[in-house]
Amino acid sequence: MIFYGISLTIIGGALNHDHILNTEFAIKIIENSFSQWFVVIYGVLYLLISFINYLLLELSKRELQMLIIINLLFFNIWPTFFTNVTVKDGGYGIINFLILYLIGYYIRIYNNVNVKEWKYVLVYVVFTVITFGFSLFTERAWNYNSIFVMISSIAIFMIFKSISIPHSKLINKVASYTFMVYLIDVNLPFNLVLYRRLFHSNDYWNNNLMIINMVVSIIGIYVICLVIETVRRILFSKIESSLLSHVNYEVKVGDK
Length: 256
Known about the structure:
Blueprint: H1 2-15, H2 23-34, H3 37-56, H4 61-81, H5 94-110, H6 117-135, H7 147-162, H8 169-175, H9 178-185, H10 188-198, H11 210-244
């Protein structure tokens, strides 16, 4: 996150003809290096997982169901239909991540029902349409903690969970780059270079070729980001391995 925050912000800023040698741009570099919300919140969740699991092991199925229902009621349903009194982060904070983790835990431990994939697809489509319709009345419809978005995300998760994909070295190899592709793509200065200067996606709004441009740009940008990350790994893999070899810390919770 820090590496791409610094390097791509400078490269993107230079290509976009920004004034990179001033205080304002220095602040932008700091923001892009330390303020990627997903990375930060996921890191916090990761640090809490050992403690959360220790607590979950003490809960019965019924108690876990009640815990999930209470959380959904106050942190998903409430802010979807009423006000943001219970949570004001739109689902981008640690609360929504914890709820997703609880639901994922429940699915892993207790979901033994064999449901056809098409039913999950139907649920996803229906609630996606509902989300779009609800968005005509309020911007809260697109929040990550919207109950409609939550149900859609669970449905699409279950779609892929129910699909049996044979082991593939190629898929696993490409998948290992996905997180870094995300980090590159969300870097705003470099993002502008990719979408506007390279693929000219902004020229295709309300254009009959918008779908074609969307498909080409998505595939093209993924490949470009994959190449960038490959080069980074070649150049810095030894340095990273050396640094990580000095990190050896394990969190143990509940051991006597």
